[in-house]
Automatic annotation (TrEMBL), chain A:
This is Daunorubicin resistance ABC transporter ATPase subunit. Belongs to the ABC transporter superfamily. Drug exporter-1 (DrugE1) (TC 3.A.1.105) family. It comes from Natrialba taiwanensis DSM 12281. It is found in: Cell membrane. One of its GO terms (cellular component) is plasma membrane. GO terms for molecular function: ATP binding; ATP hydrolysis activity. It is a peripheral membrane protein. Residues 4-235 form the ABC transporter domain. Its main location: membrane. Keywords: ATP-binding, Cell membrane, Membrane, Nucleotide-binding, Translocase, Transport. Transmembrane segments: none annotated. It comes from the Archaea. It holds the Pfam family ABC_tran.
UniProtKB/TrEMBL annotation, chain B:
Its main location: membrane. The keyword Zinc does not apply. GO terms for cellular component: ATP-binding cassette (ABC) transporter complex. It comes from Natrialba taiwanensis DSM 12281. This is ABC-2 type transporter. Coiled coil: none annotated. The keyword Membrane applies. It comes from the Archaea. PANTHER family: NODULATION PROTEIN J. Keywords: Membrane, Transmembrane, Transmembrane helix. It is found in: Membrane. Residues 25-253 form the ABC transmembrane type-2 domain. It is a multi-pass membrane protein. The chain crosses the membrane at residues 27-50, 62-85, 106-133, 139-162, 174-193, 224-250.
Amino acid sequence: MVAIQVDGLSKTFGETTAVDDLSFRVEDGELFGLLGPNGAGKSTLINMLVTLLRPSSGTATVNGHDIIEETAAVRNSLGIVFQEPALDEELTGEENLTFHAQLYGQHKADRDERIDEVFELVGLEAERDDPVGSYSGGMKRRLEIGRGLLHEPSVLFLDEPTVGLDARTRRDTWEYIQRMNDEAGVSIVLTSHYIEEAEQLCDRVAIVDDGEIAAIDTPAALKDSLGGDVVILEVDGSLSSFCSRLDACPWVMEYTTSPTQVRITVEHGETRIADLVRLADETGVAIASVDIHKPNLETVFLSLTGATIAERESNSSGDANDSALEGIHPSTTADRHASTTPEDDE
Amino acid sequence: MNLIDPRSIYALWRRDVTRFVRTPSRIIGSISMPLLFLVFLGFGFSDAAIPGLPADVDYLQYLVPGMVGFTMLFGSSFAGLSILSDQDVGFLKEILVAPVSRTSIVLGRIAGGSTTALVQAVLILVLSVPLGFRFDSLLLLPLAAVFLVLIAVTFVGFGVALASQFSDSEGFGLIIQFVIFPLFFLSGALYPVESLPDPIRILAFMNPLTYGVDGLRAVLVGSAAYPLFLDFGALVVSSVLMVAIGTYLFERVEAV
């Protein structure tokens, strides 16, 4: 069973292409991440998948239902937590959930039971009768995630679920998301511009830049594609015999040297440090320090797009969080569509 | 998605009523302006000769149905426009992403907005009694309720239609000054529209509130400018039209 199937989906606003001919699929039960800077088109993509925006071209299915032809079935199949809070702060937590359940057509008997379950799941039983306005940012997020699951959707969309949360609350929220995925068995699609979030949480990650997907794979495979860890040795002494020993090692993928430093690329660097230290010792090289650089999704993003996520974000002007135009990314789109955009600023 | 989904309409109604009841300051705020108008205009002009006023009706009697209409106009339009404040706080997306037809959403808003506007209007009516207002006939009160409901439906629909043309609540002040207040002044709430110059009087005749206020005056005070069935017919037409226009325009609102 496929949770989401996207085929050639595009969305343009005027002359700007926010989402450019995307195709991918999300398997049932998967925790799938869309990683990319603000303005890469992630929210635009989500808004199309949840039927709030009409695609300019292409199509997609959610839980087997077409997002254009079968909007009612699609809406029944999904839950969403938007980037900006979407709670009625004057109502209590319970009233917010009741409102939601009624809109999704749940009968009173099922509803009461389900609402109890959700409050337990997100750990807000004690606050259920308090106005949502008195909740902390983290509590609101949990309530929204719980609400997204209230009508037992098969896919839960989380658009930047931890933006604006402090570090501790962010970790707690990750834990909740992981638990929802494990316990409720719901497929989850989340967007993020936090490397760590995508890396920690997601089964598979799509790296999104400028409305296109640069790569899709498991975080581990994406990192492996960069070709291993880099072990950096600060050294003193003659390196010639050390280097000839390195040449003879089958597990050394490549290395570079400078008078005081050797950078060695190996797979699973942590398992090779002892060997490297022994080699250095045997060849009379003194080691001042050992450092190991493991590739993360940031270096993956860098090698795929030629810029870091932070650099991409500082490039995009205006309010990158503006939901309607989330996909617009002035400088890079100007590069890509130079023929249609007169003010090519680079 | 059924076009008309009673459970969702109920949920939307329930939300409006809960919010209204929970905020006494909002209730007091909503009736203080019409009440001040009633007190100061009612007493201030009590002995003035107002052109076109029926000889046997004193000004307070004339004014009360007008201020009830004023309360309905503001209460209902604001309820329709509250779609914009839902948009501001993001809650509109929660409503729009649900498997509920836009028609049901508009009907739910109309149900909620009409109820809260009606409560405000009834409060004004009750508070006008200690000021010296006398009902012409208590038997006709159910008929007054019919007129109140029709005014409410018309102007909540109107508010929804207006809200659909804006993307946030920043235009609110402009709407009040250039749309809502003119509707009020051109409704015969304060003085008979017959004394207005011709071109302006035509605008008054196109204003549904003119017929609402006249109908209320007929059943509450027993004095009216037009036949009751004309007032009634005009309001039925305007409420059907406004609901249709409001729904049509709201269908086209982009959610994000």
